From TrEMBL:
<dbReference type="InterPro" id="IPR031681">
    <property type="entry name" value="YwqH-like"/>
</dbReference>
<protein>
    <submittedName>
        <fullName>DUF5082 domain-containing protein</fullName>
    </submittedName>
</protein>
<dbReference type="Pfam" id="PF16888">
    <property type="entry name" value="YwqH-like"/>
</dbReference>
<feature type="coiled-coil region">
    <location>
        <begin position="18"/>
        <end position="48"/>
    </location>
</feature>
<keyword id="KW-0175">Coiled coil</keyword>
Amino acid sequence: MSQASMLGDIQAAISGSIAAIQEKIERLEQAKRDINAEQDQCTSEIKKIDQPALGNSWTGSRADSFDDSRDAALKEMERIVSEEYDSYIQSIENKIALLKIELAAAQAASAVAQGAERLLDKGEEFVEDVGNTINSLKGWLFN
């Protein structure tokens, strides 16, 4: 296989990798937006848990039991909305940050491959440099 065709294959693989990473980032960003929207909706729904107010006309053990259950539900919903949703969002943000690092590395590899193509275009005196660059790119792609 010629160095030019090998560089073309490497560049295509890097481009595919870049596209896949960008797609993952977009999907995670959409998931984060969806979770934020659901968190906002839940926050407004929490306010409805203690409605209607029981008032003085509802008394006795059943009223107390109902009020205790309603308070427990309210506390659990508040915990879920404030802790678990935030935990999911943080996890997504961490994954996005890692993918952005991966994306930067892939874009750097693409720039190196383009540089190797320019060297190859310059002629035979640069063939050894191109071979070294190709080997470096292979290491990046297959490790």
